[in-house]
Amino acid sequence: MIDNISWLAIYPEIVLLVMACVITIVDLGVKSAGRTLTYILSLLTLVVVAVITGIYASNGNTFYAFGNMVVSDAMGNWLKCAAAIAMAVTLVYGRGYSRDRGMLNGGEYFILSLLALLGMNVMISGNNFLIIYLGLELLTLSSYALVCLRRDNTAAVEAGMKYFVLGAMASGFLLYGLSMIYGATGSLDIGEVFKAVNSGLIRHQVLVFGLVFVVAGLAFKLGVVPFHMWVPDVYQGAPTAITMIVGGAPKLAAFAIVIRLLVDGLLPLAIDWQQMLAVLAILSLLIGNLAAIAQTNIKRMLAYSTISQMGFVLLGLMSGVVNGNVEAATAGNAYSASMFYVVSYVLTTLATFGVVLLLAREGFESEEIADFAGLNQRSPLYAGVMAICLFSMAGIPPLVGFYSKLAVLQALVASGSGLYIALAVFAVIMSLIGAFYYLRVVKVMYFDKPITAAKVHAPLDVRAVLVVNGALVLILGIMPGGLMKLCSDAVLRALAS
User: Fold this and answer.
1) What is the dihedral of CA 75, 80, 85, 86, to 10 degrees?
2) Does 108 have pLDDT greater than 50?
3) Cβ atoms within 10 Å, residue 327
4) Sequence-separated (6 or more) residues with CB below 8 Å from residue 457
5) Going by DSSP bridges, is the β-strand pair 325-326/321-322 parallel, antiparallel, or unpaired?
6) Do 375 and 359 contact (CB within 8 A), yes or no?
7) Which of 4, 124, 365, 406 is least surrounded by Cβ atoms within 10 Å, i.e. has the fewest?
8) Boundaries of each NADH:quinone oxidoreductase/Mrp antiporter transmembrane domain copy (predicted)?
9) Which of 484, 240, 259, 216 is nearest to 366 (CA)?
10) Following CA atoms 161, 163, 167, 168 in sequence, which dihedral angle do they give, to the nearest 10 degrees?
11) Strand partners, 189
12) For helices 240-247 and 298-318, what crossing angle results, to 10°?
C-alpha cells in the first residue's frame, strides 16, 4: 500500500502527466487555426506546477517516497519551480514563431513540452538509478521529437537525427556506467550506493571504470567538451522556439542529476571525478570561447557560449571537496554557487532567445549576427534587453552573470588549493576572451546600419514577459543576496539529508 507521503512527493509530476493527457484529448477537438485553448491550458498547468513546487521548497522539508526511490527536498523543488517557470516563459516567447511556421497545426508543441518538463521533474526527484534514467529518457525522447517538429524543414530533421544518434550513444554510456556501479555495490538506491562505496570494501578499479562512463553520459547532457558535438548543430538546425527549450530548463535537471549521482552517491570517489570535471571544464572554457569567436550564426555562437558557461558550472561542482575532505561550509558554497550559476544562465538565455524570436518573421529566421544590425534604431527596448543579456553572459557588472561567475571563482579560491586558484585565473582569462564575441553583437546592434527600417512588434504578453525577464537579469545582479541565500539553504538542506 502506498502511503500519503509518497503521493505528496509526486503531486507536481501527477499534475503534469494528467494535464498532458487532458490537453492531448482536448487538442483533438480544436481546429488547427487557433490552439489558444491548448496554449492557455499548458500555461495554467505550468503555473500550478510552479506554485506547488514553490510551496514545497519554501517549507524546506525533505522526505523520501516509494521505498526511497523518490526524494522531495528544497533543492529539487526549487529547481522544479525554476524549470516550470522557464518552460512557461519559453511557450510565451515561442507561440507566435511556432504558429507562423505551421508548428501549431497540431498540439504536439505544447504536449511534448509538458512531457519534457515531466522528464526533468522525474530526473530531479530521482533517488534511484532507474528513476533518474527513466526521467532522462522521457526528457530526451520528447526533445528529439520537438527538434524534428518541422518535418518539412531539412535542417530541423537533420538536427533531430544527429541529436538522436549522439543522445542514444550518451544514454548508453550513462546506463553502462550505472550498471557497473550497480554490479559493484548491489544497489540502485543512491543512499545505499554511497554506504557501499564509503565502506572501502569494493575494488576501486571497478568503481572508477563505471564512474568514467557515468561522467561521460553526464557531460553529454551538460553539453561540455569533448561531448559537445551535438550542441551547435542542434541549436542551429532546430526551430528557434525549440532551441530555447533544449538550451534552457534541461540544464537545471542536468545539474540536479550531477548532484544526485556524483555528490549524493559517489562522493567517496570525489578525487577521481574531480579530475575528470577539471579536464572537462578546461576544455569547455577553451574550445567554447575560441570557437564562438569564429561564428557568424548567432545560434551557433550561443551554442558555443553555452559550452563555455557549462565549464564554469563544472568548476563550481568540482570545488566542493578539497583533497578528499568534505566540509559543509566549503561544499555548500561551491554547490550553491553552481546552482546560482545555472539558474542565472537559464534566466539570461531565455531573454536572449526571446529577442532572437522577435526578430524572426515568416520566411526569415534572423539567425545571422548581421541580421541584428541597427536593432537599436528599430527598437531601443529590445536592443537594450539583448545588450543586458549579452553583457551578463560576458560577466560584466552589475549584471547577474558577473555575480554568478564571481561566486564560482570565490568557491575555487576559498579552497586554498594551488590547482584551484590556477583554474580560477584560467577561467578569468577565458572570460576576457569570451567577452569579444558578446560585445561584437552589441556593436552590430548599436553602430551598424540597419538592413531594414521595419519596426519590431510583439504581442503585449511577450513584451511584458521579455521586459520582466531582462529586468531580472539586472536586478539579480545588483541584489543577488536573496537568490544566493535561497540556493545556499537549499543545497545545505540537500547535503544534510
Assistant:
1) 90
2) yes
3) 12
4) none
5) antiparallel
6) yes
7) 4
8) 127-430
9) 240
10) 0
11) 128
12) 0
User: Among all chains, which residue has been given the C-alpha cell 533518474?
Assistant: 132
The strand pairing partners of 326, in sequence order, are 321
> Please, what is the end-to-end C-alpha distance for the chain in angstroms?
25
**Measuring CA to CA, which residue among 280, 347, 269, 325 is closest to residue 307?**
280
Q: Please, are residues 306 and 223 in contact by the beta-carbon 8 Å criterion? A: yes
Mean pLDDT score of the chain, rounded to an integer? 86
Rounded CA gap, 186 and 52, in Å? 35
Highest mean pLDDT of the ranges 32-36, 182-186, 283-287, 315-319: 283-287
At 102 the pLDDT is: 66
Residue type, 415: S
Do residues 324 and 432 lie in contact, with contact meaning Cβ atoms separated by under 8 Å?
A: no
Work out the angle between the directed axes of helices 74-100 and 460-478 (0-180°, nearest 10). Answer: 140
Distance, in Å, from the CA atom of 86 to the CA atom of 106, rounded to the nearest integer, reads 22
The single-letter code of the amino acid at 189 is D
Estimate the share of the chain in helix, then strand, then coil, as percent rounded to the nearest 5: 80, 5, 20
**For residue 171, pLDDT beyond 70:** yes
Residues 435-446 as b or e (16 or more Cβ within 10 Å = b):
bebbebbbebbb
pLDDT value at residue 101: 67
C-alpha grid cell for residue 345?
Answer: 544562465
| Residue 46, φ and ψ in degrees, nearest 5 | -65, -35
Q: Which of 97-111, 165-179, 420-434, 477-491 has the lowest mean pLDDT?
A: 97-111
The C-alpha cell that represents 234 in the structure block: 542542434
Distance separating alpha carbons of residues 45 and 364, to the nearest angstrom: 32
Conformational region of residue 379, where left means phi above 0, alpha means psi within -120 to 50, and beta covers everything else: beta
Q: Is the per-residue pLDDT at 106 higher than 90?
A: no
Contacts of 226 (CB under 8 A, 6+ apart): 283
pLDDT exceeds cutoff 90 at 156: no
CB proximity list for 390: less than 8 A, separation 6 or greater? 352, 438, 439, 441, 442
In 3D space, the residue among 446, 483, 465 whose CA is nearest the CA of residue 350 turns out to be 465
Q: Please state, in angstroms and rounded to a whole number, the distance separating the CA atoms of residues 321 and 431.
A: 24
Q: Tell the burial category of 37 from Cβ atoms under 10 Å away from its Cβ (0-12, 13-18, 19+).
A: middle
365 or 41: which leads in pLDDT:
41
Give the residue from 351, 346, 317, 329 showing the smallest Cα distance to 463.
Answer: 351
With 60 as the cut, is the pLDDT of residue 328 above it?
A: no
Compute φ and ψ for 297, nearest 5 degrees.
Answer: -90, 125
Q: Which residues contact 318 (CB under 8 A, 6 or more apart)?
A: 273, 274, 277, 278, 281
Cell of 468: 520582466
